[in-house]
Amino acid sequence: MSAVEDVVTEAPAVEAVPKRAMTLGTGTSVVVLLLLIAIPLFAKNFVIFQLTQLLYLGLAVLALNILTGGSGQFSLGQSAFYGIGAYVTAVMMEQFNIPYFLCLPVAAVVCFGAGFLFGQPALRLSGVYLALATFALATAMPQLLKLNFLEKWTGGVQGLVVTKPDAPFGLPMSQDMWLYYFTLVVVLAIYIFSVNLLRSRSGRAFMAIRDNEIAASAMGVNVALYKTLAFGVSAAITGVAGGLSAIAVQFVAPDSFTITLAIQLFLGMVVGGVGWLPGSIVGAAFIIFVPNIAEGISKGLSGAVFGVLLFLVIYLVPHGARQVAILGQQLAGKLRKN
Amino acid sequence: MELFTNQVLAGIATGAIYACMALAVVMIYQAIDHLNFAQGEMAMFSTFISWQLMQWGVPYWGAFIIALALSFVGGIAIERILFKPLAKAPVLTNVAGFIALYAIINSSAGLIWDFTIKQYPTPFGSSPFLGSQLISTHQAGMIGVTVLLLIGLYFFFQYTRIGLAMRAAASVPESARLVGINTSWMIALGWGMASAIGAIAGMLIAPVVFLEPNMMGGVLIYGFAAAVLGGLTSPFGAVVGGFLVGIFENLAGTYIPGVGNELKLPIALALIISVLVVKPAGLFGRHIVKRV
């Protein structure tokens, strides 16, 4: 091809998901919610801790889902916002003795600002170029957290220990269980917010940009504003997830927020189904439990087993858990007709 | 001024590593339109194969050629077995596949050859090159091989039928199919070539960074950065990008106070992003005009 310029019809990198297909039906939602409320009553503390982990990682995957599945922008930098959220929460709790539930909104605001600002230069980039830019952010974050002049607050390489909050009002609950329900409430609130966001004018703007940026701007969508807004919202939610993780793990250190975390969140999104919000929790389950299962099968080859399991999942359901849900729905529909 | 020239020279020497890797990255990007995250691990595995052959008494160049051939076949096999079934799956699913491949290769290499650091021989020797303390004969040889490879690839793509067919299959698959090009096999061929180029990169890099399963982690990041900086559509750009990244990295480490080794990578990446903000398709990339 000798032409210097190629003209292509822009094909969206992320397939279009209609907004109704992004959520669960009311019936299913209630069942899932009841399960989430009931399970801890019958589980050991360690299991409850793992469920808490499932919830806040699910929240981080959800945030990426809004960015990628909603507005079609790809990010490998989520670990950076997660780290900022965790550090803001930890530093406020430990150095300034501010109660944990007040730290989370602050983490959200700080991360929203960071995401919004980062979204500005990212506007010019798309596809792999955007991936590289966000990747740079992810590799820079642990180093920035280790910087000397921040050490007074962040504890440097050593990190910070966070005290676990007790259940309030003398409720007869273990710390783990209280934290689980606290996390559940936060996650639910943000889930409902996200569903509504995607159904709103802004959500429609995100999806228009995802499906075809040029067409969207021709229709009067302020592309720059909504792209940066998507970055900001996604960063804010990721920040809350990071804050919850700091409280639950009771520890933050720079090396917990490396690119590995961002890759895990990405895998969680793919396994859960890109653009399907409830899938986030399935994806989170995958990234928490499958490595353990792989280790159980073979210690020396755990990485290989994990890779093979991941391949199996993407062969069977290339569209992630969403595909399973759609199949289930169709099956249920058929049964009802018979 | 002498410090500056020295740092630039040292940058060119490390840049040669990145240029090699970037070339492999661009090759596969040309063939399949994705960045292959497992590229570095594939190169590492090829290097281990050649090392194993040398342990068994095969001379360097013999091991080199055999490893190259095996990598070529291996690359095709990976495409046929693992990624052809995913051809119709969404892009992000493919990326997840690359990550899975990364985990599999890394972990298997660790099990077969363990994680201890191994010496790897160089055919060029490691005495100072032309009396300079900063570039060794090995690094000079590496730069030479990279340039030769680039020239070879240029002739392959410009003047051979199969090179033309590969370019056609990558840029307009539908039309290529209509004129009778087997696009599916062109993709496989692209994988094979990328894998072989990666093997060359791995075998040239191994004497510098030493041989171990994680040796490619850092190199691949710089390779990606170099490829993106040069423009993913241009093999020439990738090589130039590789050298530029090497020079950037060294100069940032020397002249910006408080940078040190830890912040070298973020700063190099930040510089690359600033370049991309001005030239979004990379320095030598084709500008693509989009329409609705």
From TrEMBL, chain A:
Keywords: Cell membrane, Membrane, Transmembrane, Transmembrane helix. Signal peptide: none annotated. GO terms for cellular component: plasma membrane. It is found in: Cell membrane. The keyword Transferase does not apply. The chain crosses the membrane at residues 21-42, 54-76, 96-118, 125-145, 178-198, 229-253, 265-289, 301-318. GO terms for molecular function: branched-chain amino acid transmembrane transporter activity. It holds the Pfam family BPD_transp_2. It is a multi-pass membrane protein. The keyword Oxidoreductase does not apply. It comes from the Bacteria. PANTHER family: HIGH-AFFINITY BRANCHED-CHAIN AMINO ACID TRANSPORT SYSTEM PERMEASE (PTHR30482), HIGH-AFFINITY BRANCHED-CHAIN AMINO ACID TRANSPORT SYSTEM PERMEASE PROTEIN LIVM (PTHR30482:SF20). This is Branched-chain amino acid ABC transporter permease.
TrEMBL record, chain B:
It comes from the Bacteria. It holds the Pfam family BPD_transp_2. One of its GO terms (biological process) is amino acid transport. GO terms for molecular function: transmembrane transporter activity. It is a multi-pass membrane protein. The chain crosses the membrane at residues 12-32, 60-83, 95-115, 135-157, 185-209, 265-285. GO terms for cellular component: plasma membrane. The keyword Transmembrane applies. Keywords: Amino-acid transport, Cell membrane, Membrane, Transmembrane, Transmembrane helix, Transport. It is found in: Cell membrane. Belongs to the binding-protein-dependent transport system permease family. LivHM subfamily. This is Branched-chain amino acid ABC transporter permease.
